[in-house]
Amino acid sequence: MASTKKKDLFEGKKGGAKGPDSASYSAKDIEVLEGLEPVRLRPGMYIGGTDDRALHHLFAEVIDNSMDEAVAGHASRIEVELDAEGFLSIMDNGRGIPIGPHPKYPKKSALEVIMTELHSGGKFSNKAYETSGGLHGVGVSVVNALSDFLEVEVARDKELHKMQFSQGKPVGKIKNMGAINNRRGTKVRFHPDPEIFGPKAAFRAPKLFQMTRAKAYLQPGVEIRWKCAPEKLKNTPDIPETATFHFPGGLADYLSNEMGPKATIVSEIFAGRSKKDSGHGRVEWAVTWSPAGYGEADSFVRSYCNTVPTPGGGTHEAGLRAAITKGLRAYADITGMGKKFSHVTPDDVMFGAGALVSVFIKSPEFQGQTKDRLSNNEAARLVENAVRDPFDHYLASSPKDAQKLMEWAIERADERVKRRKARDVRRKSATKKLRLPGKLADCSRKNSEDTELFIVEGDSAGGSAKQARNRETQAILPLKGKILNVESATMDKIQRNAEINDLSVALGVGLGKKFDLDDLRYERVVIMTDADVDGAHIAALLITFFYRYTPGLIEAGRLYMAMPPLYKMTQGSKIEYAIDDAHREELMQTVFTGKGKVEIGRFKGLGEMNPAQLKVTTMDPKTRQLARITIDPDDLLTTESLVETLMGKKSELRYEYIQEHAQFVDDVDV
Ligand code: 0RA
User: Fold this and answer.
1) Containing domain of residue 269, as a range?
2) Closest residue to atom 4 of ligand 1, CA basis
3) Which of 2, 163, 257, 424 could be 174's S-S partner, Cβ–Cβ 3.0 to 4.6 Å?
4) Model confidence pLDDT, tens digit, residues 154-182
């Protein structure tokens, strides 16, 4: 992480403060504390961007601090309030952020240090002052840096203290507001800085509501109150002005609420939690199976680490899948079904499953571009060990359910094998029968396993892509310019549109009701457009098409965006490609650290890359990155209205949205 500016580490020692003296000060004691300028300069490096998602990360960061107090047993109540002016406050009844002198900077209150210093080392050396931090573990000071107003109230030792900040800088000193008897804990009230997030950025009540409720499910001991100004609830009929969340049943409640009246295979949710923390952490889980339509779309595994969602999954999810698969296999062995069960995979077992798993561990580590996948190996062991015995019990105590579940998994495995065989045959004959569009450069593999269709904008990029591809597994379909906007066209017009027809024939699937995922001729569909405004528009048109006419393809996680690089960076013989500004900065600080000028070239389009460059940066599975297109299951309303806004008939809505978000496309500072 950036450490552009280091404060005098020994500042705190003037005046003979306690703490290690300079003679015994070894490197491992040194924590690098720095001001907040780097956060304002490169918000993306701390909160992953400056878009709507990043904005809501600010809320996650603050509520996570309060949740930490609850998880540690110091707080039992949290209150969240969004007011009419867009100020958000989060209050807890925990210990209160310490307000006395900070051990390292005795002239400053700990509160001020916590709010104004970036703790980049990842750890405060004084354990008592350690907070686990939110999604990126960046700490509440990052929220402070990115707020044009932030006020902290601390009620501690029967006294109320207040301090205000703007853009991360104190506005005046910490004030003692006098005696307070009916309150203790911390309240953080803030407003995101429009200079960072844009003039129209604003918290959205449905998103905040959903995030707040999820926290209450994850920490059964906590009660969370929700309050929202009516001005913020227009067009959101489902969101109340006030609510109280308290779910003593934890994840089991969460899951039964999620499943609603859906039929399930087993009569009871399989849920449990590990006993008190054994030192390695603790875990809670809930799993059930639904046969409804038994499409892949009905399956979900949602996981959390220290109450923070981990949409990328990770070791805790793997542990859960392993425990359930092994448990069911052992059950099959005992009941003489071992042979039939032999080809069952975890995917078969988890087919149609709705599963939640939440772990609490001391030093979580995350992987992936957005750091949303848990990578601690001990989490896999923790979960597998905790879940395995209770699952064996669950199966043994309800043999009827166990039998049904085992048969379900075996049927899914049998079907999968049968489908693959049928698909191989069908694909071979279909390729002969179907009149594939002439401009499709199909791949040669006879089944769809590991194959990809690249939808490319324009013939010239299509040409490079054809040269760059792996002929066996990668097919290229060049499209002429912008495809029809399906959101504002009639069905008749859509059916007569040549490009859309080509697309549907190449994919091998029917549209709308006729869609069948099993007909899809490729394992993945990849949209590959230029990294510019036009490219984004074409991608948006295509995604709209898939969302409206083949939603099953998106739900199955088979639609992707290619991530062509924006920059080529050269220093001597070192060459790297950066997919965005944040990545470029990261490379500057991690790879191009040596002497010599770093040349940075900006790609204007895919066509500017030669086939070899296109291959290594964007197409080769070994070196490229893809972004999977997903529909946020907790945010269907937003997705629906966003698609309508962006692609519907009302062009003024679209214009407004693009005006609001255009800065993220335009403001490249090179
Ligand atoms: C550092 C140390 C202690 C508590 C906290 C931070 C703390 C931070 C936040 C942020 C929101 N709510 C919070 N509540 C507590 C421990 C203080 C002690 O030992 O008394």
Assistant:
1) 251-419
2) 97
3) 163
4) 999 999 999 999 999 999 999 999 999 99
